[in-house]
Amino acid sequence: MTWLTVTSSLRKLAVIAYPEPVADHLDRVVAQWGAERPDLDVSPMEVFGRLKRLFRLVDAELNRTFAEHGLDAPSFDVLATLKRSGPPYRLTPTGLMESAMVTSGAITQRLDRLEARGLVTRTRSDQDRRSRDVELTPEGHALIDRALPAHVANEHRLLAGLDEAQKAALIEAMRALLEDLGEGSG
Amino acid sequence: MTWLTVTSSLRKLAVIAYPEPVADHLDRVVAQWGAERPDLDVSPMEVFGRLKRLFRLVDAELNRTFAEHGLDAPSFDVLATLKRSGPPYRLTPTGLMESAMVTSGAITQRLDRLEARGLVTRTRSDQDRRSRDVELTPEGHALIDRALPAHVANEHRLLAGLDEAQKAALIEAMRALLEDLGEGSG
DNA sequence: CGAGGATGCCTTAGCGCTGAGATACATTGG
DNA sequence: CCAATGTATCTCAGCGCTAAGGCATCCTCG
């Protein structure tokens, strides 16, 4: 376990802030690079490597709850975006596209699937005949009303291990990073 | 901007810790749910929503640097995993699979592509004839040696807006979440 | 030893997404 | 009013991944 002897300055800071963290995959990765390329400061990997792994694990956990309701993440995303937009629960594909951060082609296909299942309707807009009004059907409402509380409970469960200070710090650091990357300017 | 009047308890905590954060996409999402479903505590979305958006934005940024070196994220991932494993720069598909958190089929295909480009070799193991030894070729070494410093510099650039305390808090919170989700136990 | 199960990797159908491009409609400026 | 440009959506080929299953090899234990 020679990799345990290598620690970055960030790691040491962390140890001071929160006692006894367990070595995880990224500690090993950083230690390996320390041995192989000691000339490089790979400490940013502590952030981005964990971001990637966390995203994958969370994604899998959330999908399980979606599947229990006959949904997947893309479908849930569209239904939830329509629901939280409030009355009249109607958005354009462009609005959905910006919210989901996917291309227009992806939204077209998501809506094809949801429309085929009778969960949303797609009508031509009267104001702008290029555009479409996407709206929840009663079935769509019923489904998202069932799935949402389960999803929220699932998210609470996943966060149960963090205290308020950790959550707040996590949120603020991610907020800062998002702003750096141009979020909110659009 | 009625959504600005709605704030979660987490949000207020955060405001105390770091002055004047700008409202971002997730603030709006949480405010919308507050109006539509005031019975639900959707504060976990502050974490998971930002995690998702951050992952997407970071992924796009990192891919740009990979592309400058004729790579994409999956290829870079395999080459970097082999490189950081140190001499003799050789791993099995199973090892690569666990590191990348993808299925065996995904690794097979990644290796097909890299082998076709002459960046890795795949030979039968002598110890276990079911297994394979995947090894960097000289061309693979040359490519990852060029791409890695650029990638690390890129990651430093993306983190430039965070101070040390924010980085440390972010890392420790993600480490705690990863451990909750079963990382490190494997 | 030899059967049954475990393991390591590969194959393949199907899925959701991207990127490039097409179409239809809207807006702007002369 | 019209031409030029911009905008909203859809189309489609191609990509990487998953899930399920197959094959060869290894291991365990009666």
TrEMBL record, chains A, B:
- The keyword Chloroplast belongs to this UniProt entry's keyword annotation: no
Q: Is Transcription found in the keyword set?
A: yes
Could you tell me which residue ranges the HTH marR-type domain spans? 44-179
Cross-referenced InterPro entries, in alphabetical order?
A: HTH_MarR-typ (IPR000835), WH-like_DNA-bd_sf (IPR036388), WH_DNA-bd_sf (IPR036390)
Q: Pfam families under this entry?
A: MarR_2
List UniProt keywords, sorted A-Z: DNA-binding, Transcription, Transcription regulation
List GO molecular-function terms, semicolon-separated.
Answer: DNA binding; DNA-binding transcription factor activity
SMART domains reported for this sequence: HTH_MARR (SM00347)
Residues of the signal peptide = none
PANTHER family, per database record: TRANSCRIPTIONAL REGULATOR, MARR, TRANSCRIPTIONAL REPRESSOR OF EMRAB OPERON
State the protein's name: MarR family transcriptional regulator
